[in-house]
Design a protein that fits this description.
558 residues, alpha+beta, Rossmann fold, Hect, E3 ligase catalytic domain fold, five-stranded mixed sheet, elongated
Length: 558
Amino acid sequence: MYTAVPLAAIYLRLSREEAKTLGESQSITNQRSICRQYCEDNNITVVKEYVDDGYSGSNFIRPDFQKMLQHIDAGLINTVITKDLSRLGRDMQESSYYAEKFFPDHDVHYRAIFDHFDSESENPMAPFQFAMNDVYIRECSRKIKAVIYQKRRNGEYCACPPFGYMRNPNDSTSIVPDPKTAPIVQYIFELAVNGKSAHYIANRLTDEGYITPLKYRVLFRDNFCDRGAARATDKWNHTTIKRILQNAVYLGHTILGKTKKVSLKSKKKNVIPESEWSITHNTHQPLVTQEQFNTAMHHLGMNTKNWSKYDNVRKSIFNGIIFCEKCGSALCSAGSVYKGEREKYWYLTCQNIPKRSTNHCEHGARVKYSDLVEIVKSELNYFISLSKEDIDEIIKTANNNQSDIYRDSKDNIESINQRLSDIERIIVKLYNDNSNGLITDEQLGNMLTSFSKESESLKERAAKLSSQNIDSNEKADSYKAFFALIQKYNHIDELTPEIVRTFIERIEVGEKILPDGYKVASHNIPFRQNIRITYRFIGNIGKDERSFNQDDSPTKIA
């Protein structure tokens, strides 16, 4: 039972997005004025104000809201007032839980003024009101994603500037080198180009007193809470160094969409495959050259010990870019020496093949090193040999394929958006039917769950289709960049690490596919094998499957 004297808490909330779109009508000042006037008119004593300014209503992990719950548990508050239900929160399930269960269970009288919600009274429209607030955050999320997608297509930098850059003072959609931190990034690449390891670079930067990226953000750029600021340190980490050296943003390219939230109401993010990233080339001033970047990548991860002086160590030119198609693990050198012959028995093998491996790979890849060298060299020389007419035809075909993908995905996206609109109308009708007694609460809940799942699935499908809509001109420019680079060569006689890293981003090797009836590969048994080569700028072109005859000479299947 509620106590005779109301001891009220006024709860005020405003997200950054609402501040921009809704303006003064939802401001903290406006909410405070309305709530205090209501309490004065109804003889309610206000003992405390709780304000979460700049916090989304999509979740309830807000500092002042959590503090209010603690005071409720301590018996200091028996009444909570908000301007409307959306100020409490916009998540349908959690808002309903607090308004209709948590507050009554804790003898707290909750009132939402503008929505005429009173936890002591019947509230027949409450399910509809909670649902509409939930629809609002979903619609905001959809609009924000659409804006971000369009900005990505335009090459605008719609993310936190990476270490070494800052927002352009004259154009907030672009970034420029930060005079305070750009020299640090360039120094990191200089050390990496000279063969220094990530551990060495991290220790050296720490010893020389260079500011770390997180501490720089805390002190000079971003607003951190006390908990976040406490993580800042003066000690550089080798993982931070690796991330900087692997980030192509320092080449002047905008790279976005590396991660994606699991769902609208989850903070967990999944890593997106590199093939689905949003990449726009030459959007800002680079801090390093392509040659510096390639050389740094070559040295990255290599032991600081100079193994090149040891003749008995096999030195693969594919280190860091070759992986097992099945498990994604790196391929490392393996093999033996027989009668002084080393090259003939040199293989690149999935490091998870041994059964003692923690993540044992049943179908791990294994490819002969000399075969792979010949495959890559042959393909690069093929590209070199192409005439201008051949290159123009390849670019034209790529553009036509991209245009087909764009048209198909555009039609599908329009169909998906139409279905999403239909679902929103159906949900509104369901709540009306429930209010009129035409369907039960259980039926309403089951149907809402079903439509919610369908809606999330459709939105994921639309996002995936949108990521395919790469502008045809951008595709053509990428192909032109690749062929302009390769035409600097007349012919490649010897494949070097520098050449490999100039033209190739990744190689994936599949397991050997033996003829029917054979379970074990041997020298005189022909086999097939997938070897997928992803080139810089143009990705993978052609087919991946190759056949190997009895003398192990590879032939690409046309």
